[in-house]
Amino acid sequence: MVTALTVPAGAAQRFVPLPTWMDGEAEKEESLSDQNDEHEKRRKKKESIIRKTTVAYGIVELLKRSKKLDDEEIRVDNFLISVSKNVNPSQRSWADIDSVGMLSSGMWLMIEEPSYLNAMLGGEACYDRISGRFLAVEMKSAPQENVGKPAEAKAAPKNGLNDYHMAGMNALAAVAEESNRCHLFARLLYELYAHEPFPDDAASTKEPAKKRLRSYNEYLMLPPEVASDEGVFEIDTIPFQIPYIVRMQKLGIPASICLMTQNLLEYALRGDGRQSDDAYESLGVVCQDLHLLLLDPNRFLFDHDNQNIDNMKILYREGKLYGRHKEETLITEAFCRISPGKSEAFFVSGFSGSGKSMLVNCLSDKVNAVGGYVIKHKFDVLCLCPLSGVMSAFNKLCLMIKGGDRPVIAKKLMEEFGAGVGLLIRLLPNVSALFPELVSSATKVEAGDVMNARSVSFTLLRFMRAVTSPVMLFLDDIQWADSTALDVIHTILSDKLNSCMFFVGTYRDDEVQVDHDIFNLMRELEISHVHTTKLSLAGLDQSDLNTMISDALCLYPRICKSLTEIVFQKTKGNPFFVLEFMQSLLSRGLLRYNSLQKRWVWNEDVIRGEEITENVLHLLSSKMNGLSDNVQTLLRVMACYGVKIHALVIGYLSETKEYSGIRNGLEEALEGGFIVKDEEECFQFVHDKVHEAAYNLISISERKQFHYHLGKVLYSSCYGKDVALTIYLIASQINHGKEWILRDDDLRIGIAELNMKAGKKALDGCDHETAYSYLCAALSLLPKDHWENHYELSLRLNFLTSSAANSCCQYDVAEQILRRGLTNARCLDDQLPSYLLLSQILQAQGKVNDVYDTCSAILTELGESIPESYTLCKSARMLAETLKMYEELGDKWLKGEKTDDKTLHTTLQFYNVIVLASLFCKSFSMVVYFTCKAVQLSLHRGLCERTPLTLLQFTSIVTKDDNAVLCYRIAKNAMSLRERFDVEAQIPELYYNFYGRIAWRFEPFQAGIEHLRRGFEAGLSSGHADMGLYCLLHTIKFVLFSSPSLKSTLKEIDYYLHLLKTYKSVVTRNYLLIFRETVSLLIDSGEATSIQEKAVFGDLNDPGNKPREAFFHHSAIRCYWSGHTERCRYFSEKSMNLTGQGGQPTAYIVKFLFGLNCLDLLRNNKQVNKSREGIRVAIAAMEDAATNSEWNFMNKLRLLEAEQLTLTRHHWRAINKYDASIESAKKAGFIHEQGLACEKAGFYFKNLDRNNKKALEYFKQACECYKEWGSSVKVDSIQKEIDSLNVKEGSK
C-alpha cells in the first residue's frame, strides 16, 4: 500500500513524482541543443548532473534508514522530489532540491546545506568550475508501519538450530538483502541518469568471461591491437566491463557515476565470478561516495576532459593540509592567546618533508583575517647571513603595513625613537616608507661603530612595540640559524610591554644535537616565562594518506586503499616523499590514466614487485639525471646559492658563455615542478630535498672548484655594474676557491677588496657576524707585504675588521687587530680612528685605567697638556675662568657657524672619553680640569658635533648650588644645538648628562623620566649600552622619588631586571636590586614582593667601592619610612659624608628625610645639638633647591618648616605650613610625600590631645594617599592610629 506524504500547510515546496521530475530534466537537456554558448551549455549540463546526484544521495539515505523493502519499492516511481518554489536568483540553480520522499514507507528526508557553508560555496568564479555542496539530511516523517521499530521476539526454532547457526543464517540473509538493494539501486541510478529503462538482462549473462570480453570489443569496435588473442586487455585500455555501463558512458554520464553503478552491480553479482575488488560492501559506503561527489564535483563527479589525455597530471590539492587537524587546532589556539605584552613561541620539529611548513602556512589566512601580518624567512645550509635574514623579514613587514595602520605606526615610531629613528632606518630601510616626508636617510655609520647584535635585537623590539596588529614571524629550518639570529627572537618574545608577536620556528629534529642553539632558545624562553609550545610531526597515518591519494587521483577513497597501503610501506607517510613517489610511479608507467574508464589505474602486484627506492633523495636524483643539460646546469647553479636565487643573477649568468643555456632551462625546471617563482622575482626550490638533490648533481670533489668558477663568472659579468644585490653571492662563491686565489697575487687583491665591500655592506646593515666573516676572509687574502704595497687597503681593512670584532663582542681579537694596525700606521691621522675605537673597546671591558692612559697619550700627541695631578684650588680657579669665558663669548659663539676643524672634533672626542674614565680612576679635580679644558678648546676654536656633549659633561660635573642657574643655561643652550648638528649617536650621553644630572634642579622629576627612558633605549639600540644603563638607573631613581604607585615601580624594575639578563651588566643589575629591595620594603616589608636574588654591596669600608654609597642612601631611606630613627640618623650621616662634591637628587632626598628624622629625635630629647644642626642643614638645602625648583622641593621645605614650628609651639603657623606642604605635594604629584605631610599633621594634632577630630581627618587623608602609593606598611601603621582615635572618640 502506498502512503501519501502529508505536506505541511503553507509550505513553499511542491512535491513532484520522481519520473515526472526526470522528464523535466530530460526536456531541459534537450533544449540545450539550441544553445550556442558552449560554456553555458556545459555549465547547464553539469548543473543537471548535480541535481540528479543530489536526488540519488537522498534516495540512498532513505534506503539506509529502511529495514525491509520489497523490490517494487526500490523503483523510480516510488519516490517523490520536493522542489522549492522560492529559489533566490543569486542562489546556485541546483539548490532547489529540498527533500526526497518514499511513497511506500511514508518517509521523507529534508536535504539541507548548512547556511555558513552555503555562503562560503555560493557564487561561481567561472563557467568551468561548479561549487560543491556539503549536505546533511534530516528525517521529517517517521515510517508508518514497522520500519525502524525493534524486531519482536520470535519463538525458538523447532528444527534444532542453535543461536550460533541462526546468527550465521541471519548474517547471510542480511548480506543477500544488501546485495539485492545494491542491484536495485544500480538499476535506479541507471534510469535516473540515462533516462531510459534498465533492461532486465543488463546485469546477467550466461556467456563465459573471455567471450564476454570479446563481445565488449565488438560492441565498442575497439581496434584489434587493444586486446590480445586471448581477449585480455592491457591495464590502461580496459573499458567498463558491463555493457550497459558502457551505454551510460556513451550517453555522456560522468565516469564516476558509471563506476559507482558498475561497482553496485558487481556487488550484486557476488559469487558468480564477476565481482571485483572495487565492489561495494553496503549502501552506507555508496552514501559516502555520493556525498563526496557533491562536496567536490569538479574533482570527483565530473570527467576531466580539459586535460591532455596523453599527458594527464596527478591533481594534487595545493595548500591542502592532510591529517593535521589536532596540530592545526593547537597552533591556531596558540596564536589566539597572544596579546600586547604577551607573545608566544611555537616550535615544530620533524623530518624533512613531514609538512612542517604547510602546517604553519595554514595559519596565514587566519592571521590576515584578524588584521595581523605574516612575515617569513627560510634559512638554508649555505646561508652566511642568518641575522640579515631575520632583519629582512621585519623589513618586509614595513611594506605590508596597511594604509589605515600607517599613520598610527609612524606616530608611535616617532614617539619611541624621536630623533633616533634614523638608527631604525639603518636596520630596516623600508621604515622610511611609513613617513618619507620626515626621514630621508638612515643614520650614517661613524668610524668605530659600536652597534652589536644585542643593540640590533633591542632596536627591533622597539620597532615591534609600535606595530599595532599581531605579527606572526615564521622562521623555517632554524637548525641553520645561529645564536645571534635566535637572540633577536628571545629579546622580542620576552618583552612584557607592548610587542605582540607569535613566533613559529620549524626545524629537522634529526639534524640537531642536544647542544644546538634552538634548545638554548627554548630554555631561555621558559626562564623568561614566555609560553612555549613544542610539536613534533610524524608521517601521515594510512587513513589520512588514503584521503590525500584519493584527492590526487580524483577517485573514491575505497578504491585507493590498496595503492595507499603500498605507498605507506614505502614512504612511512612522509607527505613530500609521497608526492615524489607518486610522480615516480607515473613517470615509470606504473600508474596510468585509463582513457576509456576515465580514471587512474595501477597493478598492485607489479608495483610491489618493482625495486623502488625508499629514499626520496635517490628518487629526486634519478629524476634529475634524466633532465636536459641546460636544466641540470641551472639546478647546479641554483643549488650553490641556497634555496633561492634572484632572477637578476640568472640574467647576469645567462649573458656569459659558460652559462648561456640556463635561461633556456628555466621553463623546463618550472614545468617539472623543481622550482617556482615567487613575488620577489626569485626562483626557489619547491623543497629542501629538491635543493639537496640538485646540489648532489655536483660531486663532492668538484664542489669547491664549481663554486669558485661560478663566483668568478658572476664577478666578471657584474664588473662595472651596481653589485649591491649580488656582492654577497659573488664573494661567498669565490671564497670557496681560496687555494686558487692565493696562487694569483693580482687576483687576491681584487678578491680581498670584494670581500671588504661585502663586509662593509654587512656592517652598514648591522649584521656584524657576517661582516666579520667577510672581513676576515679579506684579511687572509692579503700578501705578506700588504702594508708596504697596499697601505690604504690594509689600513681600512684592519680598522673595519676590528670594528666588526668589537661589535661581535670579541674584544681581545679586536684589540689585537687594532694594535697591529697602530704599529703599521704611518702617521697620527691614520692612527686616530683606531685609538678612538681602542678606547671604546677598553671601556666596554671596564679597563678604565687603560682608557685613561690611551686618551692621555693621544691628547698629548694632539698638543694638549695633561697634568699628573690637579689641586682643588686650581680646579676652582679654572672653573671660574671657564664660566667667565662662556659668559663673555656665549651668545655670539653659539650663533657662529660650524667649524670645519676636524682636529677639534677628534680632540673633543678623546676629551669626552677621558672625562668618563677619570670619574672612576682620578680625583674630582682632574675631572673638572678635563671638562674645563674641553669647553675652553671649543670656545676658542668653534662649534662642532662634539660641542653639545662637551658642554653637558662640563655642567653635569661642576654644577653646584651657587652656579646652578648659569650651568643650567649653558646646558639648555647645549641641548638647543641638537637641531643644528647630527648628534643622534650621542643621545644617550646627552640625555644622561642633561636630564639625569642637571635638569632636575629646575624641572619636575617627572619631566626627565621619559627622556631618560628614551636615552636608555637609544643607548641599547645604538650599542652605547653603558650610557643607556646610566640613563636607566636615573630613570628608576626619579620614578621612585615621584612615583604615584610603588607597584608599577616594582613592575618596571622587574622588567628591566629581566631585560638585563641579556646584557650581563652585573653593576647595573646590582643597583636595580637595591632599588627593588627599597620598593619591596615600602610595599609590604618584603613579605610577598621580595625575591631570592639580593644586591651585593662589597666592602663598605673601601673608598673605591661605589655600591656602598647606594647602600647608605637606601638604608637611610628605608629606615626613615620604617620608623627606625637611630638607624636612619646613622645611615644618613654616612650617606651625606660620602656624597662629597656630588649635588645629586639622592643627596637632597636623604637630607630631607634626615631633617625630619632629626626633628623626631629632638622631639624625644635625643642628641639635641646634633639634631638641631641637622635640621638647620636640611632646611638650608631645601631652601636652596626650592629656589630653582618649587615643583620638586617646596613641599619638602614646607614640611620641615611645619615640623620645626611645632617644636616652638607656633600653632597656626605650623598648621599653615602643613597645609602648604600637602597642597604643594599634591600639585607636584608626589602622593607619598602628600601622605607624609598629612601623617605629620595628624600626629601633631594627636599629640596636642585637644583636637582628635582634626587628627583623624589628617590621618584618613594620609591613609588614602598611602593606599594610592601602594604601601601597605604605611597604610597599616596609619590605620592603627585611626582605630585608636575612633575608640577615643567613641568613648566620649
Automatic annotation (TrEMBL):
Protein's organism: Skeletonema marinoi
Residues annotated as domain Orc1-like AAA ATPase: 320-494
Coiled-coil residue spans: none
Protein name per UniProt: AAA ATPase
SUPFAM superfamilies: P-loop containing nucleoside triphosphate hydrolases (SSF52540)
InterPro entries: AAA_16 (IPR041664), Hybrid_Histidine_Kinase (IPR053159), P-loop_NTPase (IPR027417)
Transmembrane segments: none
Region: Disordered, residue numbers: 25-46
